[in-house]
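Slide 14.
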Amino acid sequence: MTTIRQDDVIESVADALQFISYYHPADFIKAVHEAYQREESQAAKDAMAQILINSRMCAEGKRPICQDTGIVTVFVKVGMDVQWDADLSLSEMVNEGVRRAYTHPDNVLRASILADPAGARKNTKDNTPAVIHYEVVPGNKVEVDVAAKGGGSENKSKMVMLNPSDSIVDWVVKTVPTMGAGWCPPGMLGIGIGGTAEKAAMLAKESLMDPIDIHELRARGPQSRIEELRLEIMDKVNELGIGAQGLGGLTTVLDVKIRDYPTHAASLPVAMIPNCAATRHAHFVLDGTGPSLQTPPSLSDWPEITWEAGDNVKRVNLDTVTKEEVAALQPGDTVLLSGKMLTGRDAAHKKMVEMLANGEQLPVDLAGRFIYYVGPVDPVRDEVVGPAGPTTATRMDKFTHTMLAETGLLGMIGKAERGQVAIDAIQKFGAVYLMAVGGAAYLVSKAVKKAEVVAFPELGMEAIYEFEVEDMPVSVAVDARGSSVHQTAPAIWHDKIIAAKAV
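Slide 15: predicted structure.
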């Protein structure tokens, strides 16, 4: 019999979560670099360059890859011959490990978990509880897979109950474009097939724990229907031309993972869960000999990548910007922002819109200003702010018309595309929407020279800050005439990819 100590579980979970907050898996870095080298779309290539640079910076500085440090998901396989030297339940041990990881003073991680999700939605302050799945298996060890899943990619999860005669490939190809770019491609697609609805979703999530190996599969050739599906889905999704960050390009997915399970004769459950450019997972085994700690990779695993804004870059001074300057910005322009901007995301927008509806004065003046959709990580040591990458902009779409009409807001900065309701409002009021690269949070934070909470401090990471930035890189995603790069660029690249195949 193997005896597993309580402290070994806690220490191993905490170590794994700290580790994955700043180290990408080596297979992911290799896959992104290969995609970067192949990419022909300059916008997508620039986005991948920022992702790779950010990843190396995080590995060196031991700070989070993304400001959204995720909801913790844990898969635990408990050997039937294991005994426990513990006062806590196994779930309590795991959650204590999560608590210690997310409150570590040298690398504080953002607490994003809200209790009472349909009611008060109050932050638990330590990112607990985790979502934990158990399986009891033969043996005398405990095997653990730990992941930290960002909300932007998790929110794009899809589930369908197909008819047994329906095409899984057709459903995936039809569904991926509806996910937009809020899941921060390039990434992986995890697909679960069979079982029941909840089993398919678990299979999809668990498949994302596997290493990227699609190129090895392609080289040796598929040996099962599942392997055939992986290749077929990957090729057809990449043919869509969505590209990195939805900017149009050759690579949208780096790998497709599929797990299946027997199902009812009348059913074909399919779940699809994307993993973003902040892919974070670790694996360890407890065998009674002590904690199982992660082994740091070599910095030689990261390619030497540099990114330059280019000769055509436009500079915008946020302290003096005018509506005429905004009107001159063109879709796809690279822009370097300097000066003062405000931040605000879901909770702050909701509060501001409610205040406007009640005739109350807002705590900040938005006239002529830009707002950045971000919930940053708390700073450590000499940092002004922790990693501060953009959150998914579409969640603010329903507030956009009111904000532009009633406050004089001039510009917005976020991640991925805007929906039509927001595009229409941007066009009507002559505003602009700029896109920062999701998955480059630490890199973005280095442009922030000063940060101060100016409203709604009770909202924690969702409070309104004023950032003073210097040369913060963004691109014009929706211009003042309502032209959206996320609508035009993928269509252009889809046509290019199909034309190249026909040659």
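Speaker note: Residues 314-489 form a domain with the fumarase fold (CATH 3.20.130.10).
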